[in-house]
Amino acid sequence: MKATDRLQRVRQEVSQAEREAGRNAGSVKLVAVSKTFDAEAIAPVIAAGQRVFGENRVQEAQGKWPALKQQTPDIELHLIGPLQSNKAADAVALFDVIETVDREKIAKALAQEMQKQQRKPKLFVQVNTGLEPQKAGVTPRETVNFVRNCRDTHGLSVAGLMCIPPFDENPGPHFALLEKLALEAGVSELSMGMSADFPTAIAFGATSVRVGSAIFGARG
User: Fold this and answer.
1) DSSP calls for 186-213
2) Each residue of 170-196: b (16+ CB within 10 Å) or e?
3) Can you give the pTM of this predicted structure?
4) Which of 39, 114, 138, 169 sits in a 20 to 30 Å window from 46, CA-based?
5) Per-residue pLDDT tens for 58-75?
6) 118 φψ region: left (φ > 0), alpha (ψ -120 to 50), beta (else)
7) pLDDT tens-digit profile of 124-165?
8) What are the φ/ψ torsions at residue 20 (nearest 5 degrees)?
9) Which helix (H) or strand (E) holds 107?
10) Measured distance CA(43)–CA(115) in Å, rounded
11) How far is the first Cα of the chain from the last one, in angstroms, to the nearest whole number?
């Protein structure tokens, strides 16, 4: 099956999940995760009308997206992988949304770069809902204070929260926790749900879902 056919199928599944959850049609943004796929593989998906994409690594994105964004200026590019502070300048220059703000050093670096470049990508705070040592993200307990600190200390506007639940656990409780934390932190957007569990995430209030393999196929 071609990526464009898979995209169509995922769009239908998102619409169905919205209906089943009693959500408004079109209330969930589909982020097509194009990490490891080259411009040639991405182009047909853009041609099929997809405009929101996610990448894991700043350097990889720099190799393909400037040209693609030039050809299709209304593309919205999300950074969904960990950000190192030495890549903050590049990330602010290229990405429209940075979903992985997870520590003081990153918040500070982004604030400086956004001021310097006069560019304001939308920001999400990543929460490590499963307290997994190998995963980035603030702990659930730290989340509300961290969001407040981003605002008060660094002048950053935080749009929402993002999480990646442990792959071997039921994602529902993790999505419910993120929804609760967003309410407490006073943010309205929730980036949660991937290829295997996005309908569940939509039921728990996701405003965007990050879907890669269900659109682009298995990564080589």
Assistant:
1) T--EEE---TTTHHHHHHTT-SEEEE-H
2) ebeebbebbbebbeebebebbbbbbbe
3) 0.97
4) 114
5) 999 999 999 999 999 999
6) left
7) 999 999 999 999 999 999 999 999 999 999 999 999 999 999
8) -65, -30
9) helix 104-117
10) 33
11) 16
